[in-house]
Amino acid sequence: MHEASIAMGLLNSLEELAEKENAKKVVKVKVRIGKLSGIVIDSFVFAFNALKEESPKLKETELIVEEVPLKYRCRECGEEFSCETVFFPECPKCKSINLELISGEELEVVNAEIEV
Ligand SMILES: [Zn+2]
Fold first, then answer.
1. What is the band of 1 on the pLDDT scale with cuts at 50, 70, 90?
2. 96 alpha carbon – ligand 1 mean position (Å)
3. What is the C-alpha separation between 76 and 96, in angstroms, rounded?
4. Which residues contact 25 (CB under 8 A, 6 or more apart)?
5. What's this model's pTM, rounded to 2 decimal places?
6. Domain containing residue 63: CATH number
7. Which range of residues forms the domain containing residue 53?
8. Each residue of 84-102: pLDDT tens digit?
9. Residue pLDDT, tens place only, 2-41
10. How far is the CA of 94 from the centre of ligand 1 (A)?
11. For residue 76, how far is its CA from the centre of ligand 1 (angstroms)?
């Protein structure tokens, strides 16, 4: 259960945040998950919602997940583009396959809303 340990890590840092800010609860948290991060979003949300029950400050926290598409930069012409495929994508401008992946692997917290 890869997703459960990631959800746990997120809950721990939210707990710390609530503690630090002296918050009554965390209302919302928004995260960004890349398509190539290997995280199954449904499992992640499920794990988050199951685990948050244990914490009084987090049990009402709404988790919002934004899925980040794959994004490439062409090494030939510098074009940046989003693409659904990881298998042999090519530059829409110059058809080069000499590409660099610039997003799609991340897991990051965009923001959190707390109530004090
Ligand atoms: Zn190109």
1. low
2. 5
3. 7
4. 18, 56, 57, 58, 60, 61, 114, 115
5. 0.82
6. 3.30.2320.80
7. 2-115
8. 877 889 999 999 999 999 9
9. 899 999 999 999 999 999 999 999 999 999 999 888 899 9
10. 4
11. 5
CA of 89 to the centre of ligand 1 (A): 11
Q: How many domains does the chain have?
A: 1
Instruction: Report every protein residue that has its C-beta within 5 angstroms of ion ligand 1.
Output: 74, 76-77, 79, 91, 93-94, 96
Ligand 1 centroid, distance to 71 Cα (angstroms): 13
- Fill in the amino acid letter for 35: K
User: pLDDT tens for residues 63-80?
Assistant: 999 999 899 999 999 999
Mean per-residue pLDDT over the chain, rounded: 94
CA distance 57 to 108: 21
Give CA–CA dist 104/70, Å, rounded. 5
